Amino acid sequence: MRTQVAIIGAGPSGLLLGQLLHKAGIDNVILERQSGEYVLGRIRAGILEQVTVDLLREAGVGAGVDAAGTVHHSIELVFGGARHPIDVHGLTGGKVVTAYGQTELTRDLMQARQAAGLATVYEAANVSPLDFGGGKPRVSYQKDGATHTLECDFIAGCDGFHGVSRATVKDSITEYEKVYPFGWLGVLADVPPVSPHAIVYGNSERGFSLCSMRSLTRSRYYVQCPVDDRVEDWSDQRFWDELRLRLDKDLAERIVTGPSIEKSIAPLRSFVAEPMRFGRLFLAGDASHIVPPTGAKGLNLAASDVKYLCGAFIEFYRDNSSAGIDNYSQRCLRRVWKAERFSWWLTSLMHRFPDTEGFGQKLQEAELDYLVNSKAASTALAENYVGLPL
Ligand code: RFL
Ligand code: PHB
């Protein structure tokens, strides 16, 4: 088999890249280790920046988010027992974020790919990017016991944090990493969101909490927990009780509880691997960088990487120019590091750290007070939250 761009991984990065390339008339094949159902079963991100929604529309897959996404004009910070709205719409000259689940987005992209008749190999085993240092890269893989080779012009490593692409070039990269001393316990439940108009981020003496949503009938909530806690030790009742204790009185009273349909604990990590290009192999999305979920940036960074990557391939095929390819890594990393900074900062501001003593605690309180009372500080939060320009 031969294609122009071989894409490893059918998460949001790989599927969106495939769709953008298809729109530009560039042939591509996706190789995915898991089954389609497994990929759809992962409950992850929920908040899309304005530029991500615009990109989905440009890719011809904006109908789902336009129909079912919930536009948020503000976020709320809860601390000291009170709620403090941040008017991100007003502070950014009219920009918003949209709540739309990664599951729904992935489904939209899979359906568009299927409708266009594009090749996706699910349950591809032992996927290996090969010969990307020269002009004739290829990817070998196994399917149903037989070994196959996909010849291509370029390989896009969109295979997430635990994928094979970054592992293949591990001797050529510099890694930057910060691991946080806590995790997030997340619950998905078919109950109306307590705050359908804003995402609520809470800082309390019991730890961080977050009230988010997937739709007007499906909510997503998180509480900070020890990273080695076991999900089995968190009954639904214990989760709802803990969440209530971390919110202000009004929100706590209004929370509608119900049985969880998903419950999991995720570790928090900041990670960047540099560079993002190795000859004809390119890393995109979580394959190259991870942010703690506090700023809701992971999926959005994946989208901006693949926009740059698709633009680079268009320049190569249409204009016979390798300028975009040569600049890919530098261009992505400028945006990536700003999102890393923002996610680290918001994580540091909103969580309880085991080693935070009185002084650190007082600084957190002073910064929160400054943030909600200074227009300059709120604007800095708002412009990062809606997403920096591409
Ligand atoms: P993915 O989604 O991990 O997809 C990678 C795909 O590659 C496949 N794969 C392989 N395929 C072939 N061969 C191999 N050897 C392979 N190894 C792996 C995998 O099976 C998979 O299908 O990476 P991608 O596409 O870069 O997308 C990244 C996003 O998924 C991620 O950044 C976000 O989910 C992060 N994130 C959030 N991002 C946001 O923008 N807003 C949010 O609100 C938000 N909330 C979150 C989050 C992530 C979370 N967790 C659990 C990590 C909340 C949570 C709790
Ligand atoms: C989510 O809805 O899953 C979500 C929302 C905001 C975040 C992280 C996750 O910062």
Write up what this structure looks like.
The protein has a domain at 5-48 and 101-177 and 269-346: FAD/NAD(P)-binding domain, CATH 3.50.50.60. The protein is α+β, with helices and mostly antiparallel strands and 390 residues long. The protein has helices at residues 12-23, 36-41, 50-58, 63-68, 88-91, 102-115, 164-168, 236-245, 249-254, 298-319, 323-350, 358-373, 375-386, and strands spanning 5-8, 28-31, 47-49, 70-72, 74-79, 82-86, 97-99, 120-121, 125-130, 138-143, 146-151, 154-157, 174-189, 198-204, 207-215, 218-225, 260-274, 277-278, 281-283, 289-290. It is built from 13 helices and 20 strands. 8-demethyl-8-dimethylamino-flavin-adenine-dinucleotide binds at residues 8-14, 31-34, 39, 44-47, 102, 124, 127, 158-160, 163-164, 184, 186, 266, 285-286, 293, 296-300, 302.
Question: Could you describe the largest sheet, including whether it forms a barrel?
Answer: 8 strands, mixed
Strand content: 25-35%
What's the CATH topology label of one domain?
FAD/NAD(P)-binding domain
CATH superfamily grouping of one domain? FAD/NAD(P)-binding domain
How much helical structure, as a percent, in the residues? 25-40%
How many beta-strand elements? 20
Total count of helical runs of at least 4 residues: 13
Please, what is the average pLDDT?
A: 96
State the end-to-end CA separation.
35 Å
Provide the spatial order of strands within the biggest beta sheet: 6-5-14-15-16-13-17-20
Name of the level-1 CATH class of one domain: Alpha Beta
Structural class by SSE content: alpha+beta
